[in-house]
Amino acid sequence: MASRPESSLPPELYYDDKEAKKYTQNSRIIQIQSEMSERAIELLSLPEDPTIRSSLLVLDVGCGSGISGAALTEAGLNWFGVDISSSMLEIALENEVEGGLARCDIGHGLPFRAGCFDAVVSVSALQWLAYSDRSTANPIRRQRAFFTSLYACMSVGARAVLQFYPADELQLQLLLNSAMSCGFTGGLVTDYPESAKARKHFLVLDTAGTRPMPAAQDEAGGRHSTKQQQPMRKGSKAWIMRKKEQYRRKNPDSKALPSDSKYTGRKRKPRF
Fold first, then answer.
1. Are 189 and 204 in contact (CB under 8 A)?
2. Alpha carbon 264 to chain centroid distance?
3. Would you identify the family this protein belongs to, as annotated (predicted)?
4. pLDDT at position 1, please?
5. How far apart are CA 98 and CA 82, in angstroms?
6. Could you identify which of 87, 138, 153, 170 might form a hypothetical disulfide with 20, taking C-beta atoms 3.0 to 4.6 angstroms apart as the criterion?
7. pLDDT value for 217
8. ∠ CA 52-39-44 to the nearest 5 degrees?
9. Which of 120, 126, 218 is nearest to 171 (CA)?
């Protein structure tokens, strides 16, 4: 398996001048990022009326060099992007993108006033919040800081669509749990779920009420319904596995926990 960039260096170091330039000149990356940006915009379910769209302001989280911003502009939307990589933002400025830009570590929270964004998109950024590059950076705390501030800066009834690449099911559930614990409704939309290569995960989050979840795409080009995915139930096997994994990450040399087995989380029958 190819190494994941987020497990090697923090994003502001990984995307230096060399890597940022290579990233934004790779035609395949541009195509993939553009397609995922267009899909994220589709999942926002915004009005098609150009007059209404031109009055909306969309936040682009992890905007990079402006590939996703170009898709937002093409869709007739105004946008403001944040990214932690100065090198990526410099390329965006050189490309004269039509949105506003700011450097921001989303793990510290978003620095915007309440209710100022009508929608949010993010492409390939969220997974960076699942890693810490120093002992003082707790992934759970960083996720909560991001989702809490994201919820606050979105208008009532706004939707966020956040595409990401989870390393495993545990990481996916941690991000989903963090979002739901901060007040969001919604869940996960997974396109091409049967394909390991083409599979794409989107967190679709609403700030108010319970809207129907968008349909996911499948290999045949069709759509199928998506159920809202709820956070792990306390005491369930998934919850126990998550807690054990968190403990092992903090205490790598400890042997206090029993090994995982098919009996993990299994309820015992009462003794009489």
1. yes
2. 29
3. Belongs to the class I-like SAM-binding methyltransferase superfamily. BUD23/WBSCR22 family.
4. 37
5. 14
6. 87
7. 86
8. 40
9. 126
Q: Please give the pLDDT value at position 208.
A: 83
Structural domain including 90 reads 5-231
Any idea which residue has 């968008």 for tokens? 214
Structure token pair of residue 40: 């994220």
Q: What is the 3-state secondary structure (H, E, C) of 211-235?
A: CCCCCEECCCCCEECCCCCCCCCCC
Task: Name the residue among 119, 71, 122 with its Cα closest to residue 97.
Answer: 71
- Count, in order, helices (H) and strands (E) of the chain: 9, 9
In a domain, 52, yes or no: yes
The pTM of this model reads 0.80
Across 12-27, average pLDDT: 89
102 pLDDT more than 80: yes
245 located within any domain = no
- Rounded to 5°, angle at Cα 231 from 122 and 44: 30
How would you classify residue 115: left for phi > 0, otherwise alpha for psi between -120 and 50, otherwise beta?
A: left
In a domain, 236, yes or no: no
| Residue 233, Cβ density class (10 Å: 0-12 exposed, 13-18 middle, ≥19 buried) | exposed
Whether the CB-CB separation of 229 and 238 falls below 8 Å is answered with no
Q: What's the CATH number where 80 sits? A: 3.40.50.150
Per-residue DSSP letters for 45-96?
Answer: T----HHHHTT-EEEEET-TTSHHHHHHHHTT-EEEEEES-HHHHHHHHHTT
pLDDT at 249 over 70: no
Would you say residue 265 lies in a domain?
no
Q: In the predicted model, what is the mean pLDDT of residues 248-264? A: 67
Mean pLDDT over each residue of the chain, to the nearest integer: 86
How many domains does one find in the chain? 1
Q: Which two tokens stand for residue 185?
A: 């409704």
Cα torsion angle, 91, 198, 180, 183, sign: positive
- The phi, psi pair for 99, rounded to 5°, reads -100, 165
